[in-house]
């Protein structure tokens, strides 16, 4: 557990110094140029408010990843007013509309390939590409995020370092995906993640491991089985003291992580009252300086509006990746129309150039399998 550097109260305001956490982010993830001054604009999608279990399953589609992201610029280097006016003219559906929404360019497209065939989407991506804009985003696979506490409760999972820990999480996630209905019922029965009978919970998982890996051929599953077996009479520390069946109470931590990752930057979020209330519970300070962020109504910021378009495109792009294997993606990419291919090349270049500027512009909590799909897309020669 990373300790915060200092918590103090000044004139009734709680000030939290996150300097040590920022240093840890820098050291652990090697994020470059964290102190550079950017202007970051945000919108979000797939916000379930709370992600929890019901008697039937989840209260929200677990395949719909939460996504926070938008546009990034070097401070003071925004696109020209003339360029923005030209874009708005192309994208606006009605002359009297007060703002641009993703639905205006989506035009009822249900899938990513259908989306990038729409003229307004093609015009928007081309504008981003021509203006050398940067895209930043953070995503969370809610189900993956919910089950990794099982791994992190086992001290043996850290013996092989960060990468092995991730590998074990992805192995468990992959196994669960193949037997999801059974595992969800297990979670419901034990009021996961607030397990009361840890011995019985571990016993059920051990029997499941025996069923899916009877000969012990899969090293990672066998490693997890032996590790859990050694904890048969222990408490899984991250699976107690929680609220029954509530995996994610809110997404404020993703907002906070974005603010801390670029602590010298200006952060402008679309208005989200519950998140703002959580963040405003204390003043965020790094290296003795208060970090700048604000929440605004989207109709007051063209760049927040454009971030809504970006996040909508990213959501459908992730939907494509999530629902297909790499083999399927290869077939899909081989059969693009000329128009789709031109737009997807610009979109790929936009994403690639953003990571060239700062690969801290991408942050995700998801399985290795999903990250492999992102990498496959980024490296594909269209």
TrEMBL record:
Mind telling me which InterPro entries this protein's record contains?
DUF3800
> Which protein are we looking at?
DUF3800 domain-containing protein
Q: Which organism is it from?
A: Enterococcus plantarum
Instruction: Give the source lineage, highest ranks first.
Output: Bacteria, Bacillati, Bacillota, Bacilli, Lactobacillales
